[in-house]
Amino acid sequence: MCEHMFVYNGSMSTPPSCPRASYRAVAHLDLDAFFASVEENLDPSLRGQPVVVGGGERGVVATANYIARRYGVHSAMPLRTARRLCPHGVYLSGNHHLYHRYSKQLMAILRGYSPLVEQVSLDEAYVDLTGTERLFGPVRRTARAIQEEVQEQLHLSISVGLATNKLVAKVASDFRKPHGFTVVPAGSEAAFLAPLPVQRLPGVGPALLGQLQDRGVRTVGDLARVPERLLRMSFGEWGEMLATAARGQDHRRVSPRETVKSISRETTFPEDVGDAAVLEATLISLCEDVCRRLRRRRLEARTVTVKIRYSDFVTHTCSHTLLPARDVDEVFFREVLALFRQGRQRRYRIRLLGVGLSNLVPRSWQDDLFDQEVPLLRELNMKLDLIREKYGKTAVRRGAAQS
Ligand SMILES: [Mg+2]
Question: How far is the centre of ligand 1, averaged over its atoms, from the C-alpha of 123 (Å)?
């Protein structure tokens, strides 16, 4: 396995053992070709072959291993295209249970080095190593030890970026994939980023990239030279964020999310209700609410529960567990309505309705590449979330929802 070590040496005034103690030491770790690598562990005969993990005939590529990538196969590409580019590849439909199990093991390893582990997706996390020197020695050695432990315990290759903040650590982990190990010492953040294409900055998607290129911005260095005032004029708040990012600054903390077991909401009607249309509209509205909270916490849910309390206080709950976990409203609307229609077995009026989501797992956007409908729905959902956050919950409602 090839390894790369990059230490920026340009005008560095700080010793290579940086990030220094007075700075934060943030590592970003990202497994290489995660799903495909797990499949190779499972069946070592796959090693050396192009391996593509993705959903059925109409699906898209979730992960391609590095050999398949040489043929131009990449994530989110329709499988049909992948098969044309790489007809002799091994195509697998994937095993979510197994990937989740590996993910849990990865996070357990990381938590052995710091209590400050922020899981971003199934195969990606930030670890704040600030102040771990007394326990483990220089942070650079610790980051290397984590990489080795993941390799030994899970037989998975992971890329590591070590820097003074999350933004630079993330760009660094991606700098020399696979099995990369990139250290960006304190003080050299902007110099490290400067030659990189501007789309390497997290958040610079195709639309923004087009606008930046129209203004002659190609590298992060180009961006850093644009006066912040101009960026703010062109891109509003985004402009300010871009300017900060171009300087290699990022003040976000590594924040482990508290483990939420479930998210639920219920409502008691002012007067008991018998009208199915009103009841179902209420359920949709409750469902929207819990889904929004789910997405805000970057979680996905597997189990959905509907609670029905009748006018005589008899209470029924019914649940359904889906696979894989989801975070978009539309999926849960269908479930909630089906559960309600099945579960409402008495003719009494209803006093209270509740919707709950449980069996929560960290969001894994990659998983959704198995399904083409879900990313579009998510994009819509997230836009609605933004509007509601800005203008209030009732600013946008679906036709059937009752406020
Ligand atoms: Mg990865």
Answer: 5
